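Regression check, magnesium ion case 267:
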Amino acid sequence: MTAEGEALVGGMMNAGAVFRRGALVERPAPRNARALHAHLLALKEHGFDAAPSPVGLTADGREQLTFVPGDVPLPPFPGWAMTGSALASVGSLLRRLHDAGAAVAVDTRAEWPRDLADPEGGTTLCHNDVCPDNVVFRDGRAAALIDFDFAAPGRPLWDIAMTARYWVPMLDPGSAAAALYPAGLEAPARLRILADGYGLPAGDRAELPGVVEQATEVCRAFVARRVADGDPLYLQALAERGGWERWDRVQAWLVDHRETFTAALLN
Ligand SMILES: Nc1ncnc2c1ncn2[C@@H]1O[C@H](COP(=O)(O)OP(=O)(O)O)[C@@H](O)[C@H]1O
Ligand SMILES: [Mg+2]
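Current build output:
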């Protein structure tokens, strides 16, 4: 505990800069914080209470949000966070976000971050970064999404693909082990569980494996930009997890298994 509060660990982008002070969390405000806070408050009015409530912005560029009690799975990811029922609950939570979003227009004048945004655009606010360390669990179920720094308008299917990348995960077994997931996670069956938890319609299911490939390309390009900028966190993470070879391997694995994923989703 410091004068700033208790440091919260979990993320990478704002590592060392997220603090809890009692019922509040303070973290660096994203550039579009005003539009994002307005959107989160509107979602809340439409019944989506599974996110921190924005409380305010400080003069020194930080945002204040409510602290959401519960457990956040951090690497090495614990078994309880990787069960089928935990995965299904992530799908249904994402569906709730998108359903509430259908009634709230995205502010098109705001500068939503492009980093992980759906290149095809869309009208639903996608979280875009539903990784385990951005989900709060209670009683074994996903109870809230946190860290909307990359949220941007897009297709709901894009957000599902992004979520699948982290939660299935959509990685070859060697890459999943390097990213500290437990061994033995069956990707095709888990992709199906996520889609079922979301309630994904058949037409979208057929498209999902291709959108996961597209999302993986966008994530790779994001890392490449950070590395080109000399960002030490991304340089280190890339080196530790097997460099560009790992990305090549993941992308080849996705293409090789496209039919397997489609069959698991539709049959
Ligand atoms: N509102 C919140 N309620 C509960 N825990 C939070 C909240 N905000 C952040 N945390 C915790 O702090 C960690 C880092 O915060 P996050 O906002 O995700 O930072 P980063 O941008 O670095 O990923 C999270 O993984 C979570 O464990
Ligand atoms: Mg985070």
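Comparison notes: The chain is about 45% helix and 15% strand. The radius of gyration is 18 Å. No diff flagged against the previous build.
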